[in-house]
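ingest -> validate -> predict -> emit
validate: passed (alphabet ok, no gaps, 198 aa)
predict: started
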Amino acid sequence: MTRILAIADVPAAPYYDYYRPGCLDEFDLILSCGDLSAEYLEFLVTLGRAPLVYVRGNHDDALIRNPPGGCECAEDRVVEAAGLRIAGLGGCVRYKDFCESMYTEKEMRWRAWKLRRKIRKAKGIDILLTHAPARGVNDFDSDTHMGFECFNDLLARYQPKYFVHGHIHQSYDHKIPRRTELGPTTVINAYDHYVFDY
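emit:
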């Protein structure tokens, strides 16, 4: 069994503001779904014992030029960590210009299409790690928080055990689910933090 800490959008107070020695020791893997600073990610990977795999959020352009030390970026790749195959596609739907981590549906579909070859080479994936949700799953109709339709295609084709995303803050609506079943895939909204076992 692999114990996973998924994080996104805001630093998780129990593991940062109120950090106490050893509180990260239970985790075998940390997954970051974006919109978190390099300093925070470096803090977690330094004080914990688990590898940290991340994708960028729509506010993470700085990480392109200054990636967090000790962490592994899964953007447009399939990486293996803690014995799991993790495919990553960060960013969100483009709602303004001049942001490197925002994409049209067409642009994200192209990224997803290129990732398929890497997924086949890895003989599938265990986790799809993104910042934005899939269209119709935990997303909104607004431009700023709409999901990508092409993520649904990846989920249907490769059926990973988990799809972990951020971007949809619990503060937007208390009824937003943290965990949803979508066929054989469990969808996790990692806003702030969410702990689960693989």
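The radius of gyration is 15 Å.
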